[in-house]
Amino acid sequence: MIIEAILLTVITAATPLVIASVGELVTERSGVLNLGVEGMMIMGAVCAFAAAQLSGSPFVGLLAGIVSGAAFSLLFGFLTLTLVANQVATGLALTILGLGISGMLGESFVGIPGVKLQPIVIPLLSDIPFVGPLLFHQDIVFYLSIALVVGVNWFLFKSRAGLKLRAIGDSHSSAHALGISVIRTRYLAVMFGGACAGLAGAQLSLVYTPQWVENMSAGRGWIALALVVFASWRPWRVLAGGYLFGAVSIGQLHAQAFGIGLPSQFLSAMPYVATIVVLIIISHNRRTTLINTPASLGKPFVPDR
User: Fold this and answer.
1) CA-CA distances (angstroms) from residue 16 to 21, 42, 83?
2) Selection from 290, 235, 251 nearest residue 13 by Cα
3) Is the pLDDT score of 265 beyond 70?
4) Quick one: which of 26, 99, 110, 232 is 20 to 30 A from 222 by CA?
5) The pLDDT value given to residue 145
6) Assigned CATH for 2-292
7) C-alpha separations of 267 from 125, 157, 217, 248, 272 in Å
8) DSSP of 51-101, one letter per residue?
9) DSSP letters spanning 216-270
């Protein structure tokens, strides 16, 4: 069925957006603005592809993607949390650095067929018409993305540690006065965001298109950043927004395939046009945005000496 095939591609396209956005949501909830998501995604993609290619195991590739994203995020954390560098400038610099390093590391892997991560077939459930292939015949990264949304939602709003993290994001000075370790918590949040970005990148090179292509993240890191704002820093809204943007991305491809009389350049730009439109709509509801935005977002913290 054509509809089933389209929905399968939408799920595959939306999964990296959901994963990267959930990671960035946790980072921003702690009060840190990480604009280096794109760079961490592309580093995760190249490291995952290289590790899978050299080891022959896509699971080794997934682990390499997660570790590379977390390691790159530690560099961001050291510069912004320890050295108190400007978070916006540092994030932009790391995105450029990640794009450059990934191009250099992946040069020898261009044109080589990748090791594809195979889907998990759940007996009986996968045989259910229409629903079975969509929900019960997917790769492990898809199930991880759903688990991340559920887990992060519980962590932020049901756990004591999540309450502390949100308190730091709302007022790091007050949290510090109460004895909460602001820097350590933010380091952990940044590492979690980086690991998620690396996993999202690994999905691109092991599932979405199992090959290495320079700059294959193609701006998805920036869309993930916009998704966090679109979702008002709520995990379930991130899931919905991720699938919305995934549908727009896949929709423009099918529109070109069906020969719709619009320039291909315009159709290719649709996901980014949709991002801009959504941000414009959100900006009109400033009251809701201000209520949900972590008050300490992007503000440096220096402990009292």
Assistant:
1) 8, 12, 31
2) 251
3) no
4) 110
5) 95
6) 1.10.3470
7) 36, 39, 18, 10, 10
8) HHHHHS-HHHHHHHHHHHHHHHHHHHHIIIIIS---HHHHHHHHHHHHHHH
9) TTTTHHHHHHHHHHHTTT-HHHHHHHHHHHHHHHHHHHHHHHTT-SS-HHHHHTH
What secondary structure does DSSP assign to 123-157, as a single string?
TTGGGSTTHHHHHSEE-HHHHHHHHHHHHHHHHHH
> What's the pLDDT band for 287 if we cut at 50, 70, 90?
low
Instruction: Write down the residue that tokens 């900006």 correspond to.
Output: 283
204 DSSP assignment: I
The C-alpha atoms of residue 198 and residue 204 are separated, in whole angstroms, by: 10
Q: What is the pLDDT of residues 146-199, one digit of tens each?
A: 999 999 999 999 999 999 999 999 999 999 998 999 999 999 999 999 999 999
Task: Point out which residues pair with 138 in neighbouring strands.
Answer: 120
Average pLDDT for the chain: 88
Residue identified by tokens 């961001």 is 76
Q: Which two tokens stand for residue 88?
A: 């916006």
Please identify which residue in the block is written with the tokens 């887990």.
151
Q: Break the chain into its structural domains and give their ranges.
A: 2-292
Q: Give the pLDDT band of residue 262 (cuts 50, 70, 90).
A: low
Output b/e per residue, 260-295; b: 16+ Cβ within 10 A. eeeeeeebeebbbebbeebeeebeeeeeeeeeebbe
Whether the per-residue pLDDT at 62 is higher than 60: the answer is: yes
> 120 pairs with which residues across the strands?
138
Predicted TM-score (pTM) of the model is 0.92
